[in-house]
Design brief:
Blueprint: H1 3-15, E1 17-20, H2 26-50, H3 62-73, H4 78-81, H5 100-106, H6 109-119, E2 123-134, E3 174-179, E4 190-192, E5 205-206, E6 211-212, E7 222-224, E8 231-235, E9 240-242, E10 251-260, E11 273-276, H7 288-307
C-alpha cells in the first residue's frame, strides 16, 4: 500500500470522508455522458409524440436540453433516468435506467480498486444507488417538492445508514459519490459534518414538515466542491447533505454504494451483484443484461407486493416521535 493510500485511509477513518481528486477521467465518464444523451433523446421524442412537451429541443446540449424539458414536465424526467427504483410506490411499468455504460461505471477497475482500500477485496454492488440531476432551483416552480424526486434539488441532512433498514446496521456500507459535472457552492455541492460518524446513528424525521436530521442535532458543516471525475467516499454514518442549485446549469453526479460480499444491503428486495472477488473471480458479474433483468424481476415482485398492500419498508423511523414535531 502506498503512502498516499495510507493518508487517504487515515483521513477517511478520522473524518468519515475523503475525496480522491481525478480518480476518473474522460475515458471513464464520456461513455456515461453519451448513454444519457441518447436516453434523453429517446425520452424527449416519446413525450413529444404523446403531446407532453411542445418542443424537441434537438439542437441543445444534454444539459441545456434537460433544463428545457424540466421547465415543461417538472420532475417527471427524473425516474426514467435514475438507476434504481424509487423508495415509494412501485408499479410494473415504473421506469429506470439500466444501461451498459452505467454498469461499466459500477464495475470500473479504478473505482473498485479505491473501494477495496476501504472495505476489502470482496466487493458487492449495493442496490441503493441513484443518479443526481440537480436542475437550477428557479426551474422548480412546477415540481412536486413533497415527492421523493425532490432529491434532484437540495438534499436534506442524513446519514446513509439512516435511510436503509435495520438489518444492515452491522454492514460495512461505503458511499461512493461521483462528480460528472463541476460541483460548486453555486450549483449545489455536497457538504459534510467531519467526524460525525463517530457519534453513531442520529435520529431522522420523515414527516410532511420535517425531513432528515433535525437542525438542532447538527454541527458545523464543510462544503466539498468537486471537479468532474473526483470521487467522494463516505462512511454510512457520516452526516451529509447538498445545498440548492442557484446557478443556470445542472449539477450531475452518481451516488453509489458498496459493501463486503455476504453482508445485508438494507434493501433486500432490490438486486445487487458481486462486483469484485479475489477469492472467487468467477462470481463477478460481467454481463449488464443480467443486471438489467434482475431489476426488472425485482420491479415485478415489488409491484405485486404494493398491489397486495404488503408494502416494503424503506426506513425505520416513527413520524410521531416528539423529536420530529
Amino acid at each position: 500500500m502506498t503512502e498516499n493510500n495510507n493518508s487517504n485511509i487515515n483521513h477517511f477513518v478520522e473524518n468519515g470522508f475523503v475525496v480522491l481528486k481525478g480518480l476518473l477521467n474522460k475515458d471513464d465518464l464520456n461513455p456515461v455522458i453519451d448513454e444519457y444523451t441518447i436516453l434523453l433523446d429517446q425520452i424527449v421524442h416519446k413525450w413529444f409524440k404523446e403531446g407532453k412537451i411542445k418542443n424537441l429541443y434537438a439542437n441543445q446540449s444534454f444539459e441545456d436540453r434537460l433544463i428545457s424539458v424540466s421547465k415543461e414536465v417538472g420532475d417527471d424526467f427524473y425516474q426514467p433516468m435514475d438507476i434504481s427504483l424509487p423508495p415509494k410506490s412501485i408499479f410494473a411499468d415504473t421506469p429506470m435506467h439500466c444501461g451498459q455504460a452505467i454498469f461499466n461505471l459500477l464495475i470500473n477497475p479504478k473505482l473498485l480498486a479505491a473501494v477495496e482500500m476501504f472495505i476489502g477485496s470482496e466487493i458487492y454492488s449495493n442496490p441503493v444507488q441513484h443518479v443526481r440531476l440537480k436542475v437550477p432551483e428557479k426551474n422548480l416552480d412546477n415540481f412536486d417538492l413533497t415527492s421523493s424526486k425532490a432529491g434532484i434539488q437540495q438534499t436534506y441532512w442524513h446519514q446513509d445508514q439512516g435511510v436503509i433498514n435495520k438489518e444492515a446496521d452491522n454492514s460495512n456500507i461505503l458511499t461512493v459519490w461521483i462528480a460528472m459535472t463541476e460541483s460548486t457552492p453555486e450549483n449545489g455541492c455536497l457538504r459534510v459534518i467531519p467526524k460525525s460518524h463517530k457519534s453513531g446513528l442520529t435520529y431522522h424525521c420523515f414527516t410532511k414538515t420535517n425531513t432528515g436530521i433535525p437542525d438542532d442535532l447538527l454541527k458545523e458543516p464543510l462544503l466539498l466542491p468537486m471537479e468532474p471525475g473526483d470521487v467522494l467516499f463516505l462512511t454510512k454514518l457520516t452526516e451529509h447533505s447538498s445545498i440548492p442549485n442557484k446557478s443556470d446549469k445542472i449539477r450531475w453526479s452518481f451516488d453509489l454504494r458498496y459493501n463486503p460480499i455476504g453482508e445485508p444491503t438494507g434493501r433486500d428486495y432490490f438486486p445487487g451483484f458481486v462486483a469484485k472477488s479475489s477469492e472467487n473471480p468467477k462470481s463477478e458479474l460481467k454481463d449488464y443484461k443480467i443486471w438489467e433483468e434482475s431489476w426488472k424481476t425485482a420491479r415485478k415482485k415489488v409491484a405485486k407486493a404494493y398491489a397486495s398492500e404488503s408494502k416494503p419498508k424503506f426506513h425505520r423511523w416513527d413520524p410521531n416521535d416528539p423529536v420530529c414535531a
